[in-house]
Each structure stands twice: as C-alpha cells, then as structure tokens.
Design goal:
The complex is a heterodimer of chains A (784) and B (217).
Chain A lengths: L13 H5 L15 E7 L5 E7 L1 H5 L3 E6 H4 L29 E2 L5 E7 L2 H8 L3 E6 L6 H4 L15 E9 L2 H7 L2 E12 L8 E7 L4 E6 L4 H12 L6 E4 L15 H13 L3 E4 L2 H7 L3 E12 L5 E13 L26 E10 L13 H19 L3 H8 L8 E2 L5 E2 L4 H12 L1 H13 L3 E10 L7 H6 L8 E7 L5 E5 L8 H13 L6 E4 L17 H28 L6 E4 L2 E4 L2 E7 H10 L12 E6 L8 E11 L4 E12 L6 H20 L30 E5 L17 H17 L14 H11 L5
Parallel strand pairs in A: 1-12, 10-11, 14-15, 20-21, 27-28
Antiparallel strand pairs in A: 1-5, 2-4, 2-6, 3-5, 7-15, 8-13, 9-10, 9-12, 13-14, 16-17, 18-26, 19-20, 19-25, 22-23, 23-24, 26-27
Chain B lengths: L1 E3 L4 H6 L1 H6 L1 H7 L5 H6 L2 H7 L6 H8 L2 E6 L2 E6 L4 E3 L2 E2 L6 E6 L7 E9 L6 E12 L2 E10 L6 E2 L13 H11 L13 H22 L2
Antiparallel strand pairs in B: 1-6, 2-3, 2-6, 4-5, 7-8, 8-9, 9-10
Classes of the chains: A alpha+beta (784), B alpha+beta (217).
The complex binds flavin-adenine dinucleotide.
Flavin-adenine dinucleotide binds next to helix 4, helix 5 and strand 6 of chain B.
Amino acid sequence: MATLFGSGIKRREDPRLVTGRATYTDDVKLPGLLYAAILRSTYAHAKLKQVDVAKAKQAAGVVAVYTGADLRDKVNAVPCAWNVPNCDLKVPPHPVLAVDKVRYVGDGIALVVAESRAAARDALDLIEVDYDPLDAVVDPERAAQKGAPQLHADVPNNVAFTWKVTGGDADKAFAEAPVKLEQRILQPRLLPTAMEPRAACASYNPGTGQLTCWITSQNPHIHRFLLSVMTKLPEHRIRVIAPEVGGGFGSKIPGYADEALVSFASLDLGRPVKWTEDRSENYKVTIHGRDHVEHVELCGTKDGKITGLRTRVYAGLGGYASTAAPGIPTILHGLMYSGPYAIPNIAGTVYGVYTTTTPVDAYRGAGRPEATFLLERMIDLYARKIGMDPVEVRRKNLIPNDKFPYTVATGITYDSGNYQGALDKALQMIDYKKFRAEQAKARKDGRYLGIGVTTYCEICGLGPSQVAGAVGFGGGLYDSAIVRVYPTGVVRAYIGAKPHGQGEETTFAQIVADEFGLPVENVEVVAGDTEATPQGWGTYGSRTTAVCGSAVKVAAQRVKAKAKQIAAHLLEANEADLDWKDGKFVVKGSPDKSKSFGELALMANVAWNMPPGVEPGLEATAFFDPTNFVFPFGTHICTVEVDAETGEVKILRYIAVDDCGPQINPMIVEGQVHGGVIQGLGEALQERAVYDEDGQLLTGTLMDYAVPKASQMPKIETAHTVTPSPVNPLGVKGVGETGTIASVPTLVNAVCDALAPLGVTHIDKPLTPARVWTAIQQAKGGAR
Amino acid sequence: MRIGATTTYRELLDSKPLRAKYPLIAEVTEHIGDLQVRNAGTIGGGLAHADPAADMPPVMLVLDATFVLQSKGGKRSVPARKFFKGPFTTVLKPGELLVEIRLPGPPKGAGMAYASFEQAASGYALAGAAALVAVAKGVIARAELAFTGVAETPFLAPATKPLIGTKGDPDAIGRVAEAAMAGVEANDDIHAGREYRLHLARVAARRALTEALARAT
Ligand SMILES: Cc1cc2nc3c(=O)[nH]c(=O)nc-3n(C[C@H](O)[C@H](O)[C@H](O)COP(=O)(O)OP(=O)(O)OC[C@H]3O[C@@H](n4cnc5c(N)ncnc54)[C@H](O)[C@@H]3O)c2cc1C
C-alpha cells in the first residue's frame, strides 16, 4: 500500500476557508451577548490625571463601564512568561487597564460593555480623559541612554535586561585578526497583520461556575493558564476555545489584557461579552515584531576564514514586556549567531529596552531572522572587503557535513545538516557562473544586476522542556495527542498544538492513516479546545509537526500495539507471528487468517472478547518531549535588476532550496516556503512600522503599511534536499519560518551587490525605491 | 463624449467607444485599485473625492474635460482644470453633485500616455504624469502634461510650449519635464521625501511625453 507520508494531497482545511464556512471567534453568537469596546490612549506617554466615565455610563445601550482604578484589585496584571535568567530582567507590572500612566498609543484606559457593538463604540467618545503628557521615546538605542524619558519607576534607563552570549575569546580574535569590519544594522519594527484581527468572547456561567472563552489563539492551553492568572479563576474552571484562527505569525501567542477584560466583564455581569479589534486597533495594540538597532563587528583572515563576531544590540520591547518578549532577542537570537558556520569566537550583548510604543514579541522567525540577517549582511561586506566571492567565503566557513551533531560557540548543538548539498543545488539552479558573466556584461552597458546568496540554518521545533525550564520559559515545550478509534474504525486525533493555517489537520491525518492503513478521510484532527485536547503548548517556533506530530505518531503506534495484542488473541497466534499488511494483521504463513483494523476497532470498543487483563477501548495518549531542537537549513538565491534612475528593484529569479527533513506533504511544505519568502520579501522591500517623535504610529492602516500583494511578488522556484533529524520519530524539521529567515538578507545582499559598482555598501531595510535611490545619490556624493 | 458620474471603472473598461477614442482612460483605469475597487468604484466618486494622488484627475486635465455639476438650483459647467482646490477639496458646493464628465474630441493624431510610480501600500501615485501630444506635419502641434501625487492637487504643467513646432527630441522633453517642477511645493511624507518625489515626477513626465509622442500619428 502506498504511504500517505510524502504525498501532496490537497489541504482539507481549504474548502471551508475559501467558501466562507469557517467559524472564527467573531462568528460566535450567544444568547444575551454583550459587546465590549476599549478606550485606548491617544498619547504615547502621559500621566492619567482623571478618567471621567459618568456620561458614558448614562449612554443608551451601555451596560457597564470600568476604569483601571475599578479593576486594580479585581484583575491581575498581564504576566510576562519568559523570565530569561542571568540578565537582571525587570518586568514592571502591566495592568489590564492603565491606572496612573499610559505607555503607548493604544494602552487601554477604560472598558465599555453595551448591548451592541455600535453603542459600545459610541460610548468611548463620551469618556473624558485628562492627560498630563510626558515625552515619548521610540528608538530603543536612544531610550537606553541617560536622560531619556523614563517609562517605569524601577527600570533605570528603560533597560529591561542586559543579556550576554559568549563563546571562545572574541576580544582576542579581534585583536589578532588582519581584517575587521563593522556595520550598524537596523531591523525595523514590523506589523504582523494576520488577516483575522484578534477577538475574544467570554461566557461565564454563574450556575456551574465555569468560564468559557473563545480566543484567537495559537496556544489555547497557555491562554487558559494566563487567563487563570489574570482573572484569578482556577484553571479547571476555565475552558479556552480557539476556533478557526485566521493567521497569527506570532501575534496570537501572547496573553493580552483584552481577553481578561471580557472575561472579567462576563463574570461581573453574568452575560457573555465579546470584543473584536478592527485593523486600526490591531495595528496599535496587537504586538509588533523585530525593532533592533544592532552594532555588528566581524573579523577574519584575508583569505575568507571568519574568526570572530561581536554584537551590541538594542531590542525595543515597547511599553511593557509581552508574554515571550524577553526570550526573542536573546535565546532565539543570540544563540544563533554562528548560523550554519563554524565561527570560533562570539560575543554578543543584547539590551532589552522599554520604549513608548506597542509591545514587541514573536513575529514569524522571532529572533532568528534578525540573527541571520546580520550575519549574512556582514559576510557579504567581508567578502567585498577582502575581494573574495561571497559564495566562496560561505563555503569556506560552513560546518562540514561529517561534523554533525555539531556544537557551535554559543553552546547549542545542531542536530543534522548537509549545508554544502543545499548550496550546490541552489547554485546549479541559478547557474552562478553564467549569472556573474551576464552581470559583468550588463555593467558595461550601464545596467545594474545583482545576486544574493544566503546559506542559513535556524533553530526550531521548540523544544526540549528541560531546556525550556533552563532558559526561563514559563512552560513546557513537549506536546501531546490522543488518538481515539471509534467502534466503526474511524479515528480522531486530539492534539495539544493549535494549527492556524499551517495544514496539520491534513498532515497529521496522513500520519495516522498511514499507521492504521486507512484512507485519509477516515481520520479527523481536532485542535483548539482545552476541554477536548490534552495539555499542549501551541503552534509557534515551527514546532507543531516536529513535536506534536511526533506525539501523534507515538500515540498511533501505541494504539496499533494494542490492536496487535487483540489480533493475536482473536487469531490465537503469538504477536511475534503477526505481520502488518494492507491494513490487516496476518498470521505469518497463513494469509487467510487475518484481522483488519476495522474488526479490531469494533472488538476493542465492544470488548466481547478481549485478551486477559487488557482493558476495553482503543485509544492512546502520548506526550512527546524531544531531546533537542531541530535545525532546518538551506540556501536561498535571488537575482535582481535595479533601475538606478528610480531606485526600483526588480526581482529576476528567486530560488529557495530548503531542507526540513522528510516531507509529509510536499505541497504544504511548498506553501509554507512561498508564504515565508513573501513575508520576508515584504520585510526586505517595503514593510516598516513608523512612529513619529511623539510616539504616534504613522503607518496605522493598510494604506500606509505595505503588506506585500501577489502582484508585487516574484515567482518562487523551490527545491529541497532531505536530511532527517535524529531527534524525533518522523525525522522532520520545521519549515514554517525558514522562508522569512532566509529571504530578507538574500534580497538585500542582491541589491547591494547590484549597486557595488556605484560604491553602495549597505542600505537599511526596507529597500523602498526612495531608499535605494537615496543610497545611490549618497554613493555618488550627491543628495542626503 | 459624455460619461455619467456613476459609471463604474469596470464599465469604463468595457466601453468600446471610450477605448477607441480615449484609450488613455482605459489604460489608467487598469491602474486603479484592484478588481473589486474597479467593479464598485465610480469615475465621478473618484473625481469628487479629489484624492491628491488619484490617477484619473491628471487625465481629465490633459484631455481638458468639463464637469457638469448639479444642485436643486440648477446646473453649471466647470472645467476640470478649475475643479480641484486642494487635498480632498473641490469647487463642489454643499448640495451639489458631479453628474457628468464631458470630453472634447481629442486632437487629430494625438498620442496619450500615463506614467506613474505607486506607493506600495495604497497603490496611489507617489508621482504620476499624464501626457497628450498631437503631431501635425511632422512636428508637435500640441502638448499637454499634468501631474498627480506630487503636490496638494493635481496640476497642469504650464510650460510645454518649448515642444511646439519641434520634433520632440529627448533633450527638449527632458527640459520640459525639468521645467514642470520649477517652483512646485512637493509633498514630503514617509513614503517619499520631497527631493525624491520631484525626481520621480520628472522621470514620469519624461516617460509619459516620450510615450505619448511615440503613439501620436
Ligand atoms: C483598496 C482601494 C484602492 C484604491 N486604489 C486607487 C488607486 O490606485 N488609484 C486611484 O486613483 N484611486 C484608488 N482608489 C480610490 C477609488 O478610485 C475611489 O475610492 C473610488 O473611485 C471612489 O468611488 P466611489 O464611487 O466608491 O465613491 P464614494 O467612495 O462613494 O465617494 C467618494 C466621495 O465623493 C463623494 N461623491 C461620490 N460621488 C459623488 C458625486 N457624483 N458628486 C459629488 N460627490 C460625490 C462621496 O460623498 C464621498 O465623499 C482606491 C480605493 C480603494 C478602496
């Protein structure tokens, strides 16, 4: 029987998504439903002198209005759940509604609950807030200087933490190296822009004492815990349901004040309460990503051997520390400074800095795109400085294929790799030599062609729980599955993770169906309801398939082992004498003596004739905790032509060669690569959140924040190499973020390469035509 | 030709007579928004809205359209060249509607073109130029050039005269494009600084005039 593993079957999620039949949080309608609206600060930084809600309370349709002062003793602060050790982390309280001070435009001030959404929104205009404005500070490096406006009383210079990573002796390496270079690199703030904005709908049942909360969540079990902390309700009386979730990109990992507010209101009023943000609120309140100011130094030999890397990074955290925020620019960033290269000496310092802006947390790639970008950018600058081909510099420093598992200077151990293989394949696809020849010819004609080559690896499949504990992550990082076989032989898998667009409803069904020899239609995958699914840790960090998929596999294996016991009993044979063939246990040498999976499912569930001592039922639960992270890798190549007159960048070809181990569903892998690359090209070319000096978000709508459109993006050519991971039974590695991680430096390096004849060495992202043109003028000694 | 104000962009694209006589209108319409926007948006709504970076206004300027405005009190006609007063501001009075767009027949043998640079998020023009060039007896008899996205309103370039009577060599076109920006207070925002926007406008002018000339017969 052909296996489903490896087959690019269509995603079963898609028909309901594309025909409008999916149920999102905002679609939840309950009898007696009330609607919440939240008054948001219009100042980036101000003392709250007075919040007068008297008129709003009187407005038609308004049921209740609450201020920060009302909730101070009733709802706990929003917790930060990643307490990175050894960095003097300071997490000041983050009240669900501001009490005496606001710290970003969008900070919550008052909650209105009304009979209709319109009444709730209208009442916001009746609330009078007396602000005493304070100076704003939006740049993380500036915020960390003495004399900058102070956000929190107990956080001097706004520095939330000072985290260091060291390996080898970087200072010595720099002192001895014949070649040194440095570059200031900016990683602009980005807006995650999930198509579905966030929403929460809470329903407290005073009769049972149970709270049910529908949340746009990537990790319902984490949200159950965070809600329990904030509402003070014990965890076993809270049910979190994440129905269809329309994208997250990290922005639906954190706990937000908003779900605690509707939960409190429902508890207080005894009626269900719903809140849904619109795009403008989403851009102000839902976490942002990136926001680094980086000072990077690299040193090496004259013939291309990198000997050291040093960084000093200011990572903006926004007004408060969001749920996972401290771990992103540290554990998920600094530990990856070696990339796919053997860099013996590394020293990095990362300052986490509060600024009067929207909180920053995990955004697709979360720390690793920033690490890959700075490294890949520095390597191209290094190659240019020593006059060596950038591909040769990379090849010279890549970790050799026979060295895995390999421990890099930052102390982490890469599971498996074949970096040269992916590089060779990508170079062959582009025909590197031929392109260089074309480029040389074009330059003679005054045309600017360029090529960027990124060799990358990244850390994902988060991760061993023991490591999670050691690095201060406030939870486990195993995941779970229950595989339950029904009397009629059909199957459901209840999983602890919560896919929201990645396709695991399909791929996990493929895993289970293969194990039992069933058609894939006979397997359903259920996620997102804490009442139905075992404790899990959610979907992020490209972990769902490597960790939760492995739990599914192990649970299915356990079910099959029990089915085999029953088969042996019914066939009066030893288990050792049974073969599994075409969905049946067959007695060796007696092909007519067999029991199908369906027959065994029925017998287990009716239990008329079970082996002695074996319990009825056919289901198994597995909690899978990996022994290490997984490290997918690959090579991306982009060729561009730059119009030097206008600064416009045209992508000629984009090639992505990724290795995520064996692929359960190649079509879904390709989709993940496409999405990731496009998100990265958006970052490289046009996306940037801009605040003015007063902390007002100037890119507050889709008219000004340039999410990439299909018509702006190139065709992407994908290919793969296959290097299994030894750390999970499927051999798989994550592929949800590789595209975002690899594509940004690929594009930027290609443009800088194109403009090399003009003397352009570096352009800050995003490479809008305006910036490219300005860089050209500057290189020519012209305009600013 | 007369176009009712509630004609959708889609209807403009589907109109054969319009395409034949004013191909530029169809060409520019294809630039506007996306399929849904073109299916629902109207030419009158777009013009009355007077977004300073909209694509259609400069086309109306080079074609020298006349807008018919109507209120309870009656009708009046206003040249497109006098219609736009500022960002999102027109000569329309409260209670008055734009009901019709009247287009004079284009000069014989005229070529028309539009060149623009889009703001990546909105699709509106960072700078755009529409041009109309008519050729008679081997030399340029008429040249019109208008801009959008550059300043507070779309505007007609006053100085295309140097092209009249010439064959429109690249240098002459370049000088007209350059002169068109003299004294212009260009917009300056997060998407394009003043200097870059002026530069783009000159490039757009040059490209539009060159293409219009190439299309003239
Ligand atoms: C996503 C998107 C992308 C877009 N991209 C572009 C683009 O790339 N380039 C571009 O040029 N435009 C673009 N537009 C704008 C589009 O051209 C206009 O929104 C559209 O033409 C407005 O037409 P409407 O018929 O919907 O007018 P409405 O939106 O209904 O009206 C606009 C305004 O004009 C008033 N109004 C409407 N009709 C009249 C009338 N006859 N008389 C007096 N006042 C009137 C209305 O009261 C309102 O104030 C885009 C719009 C959207 C939504």
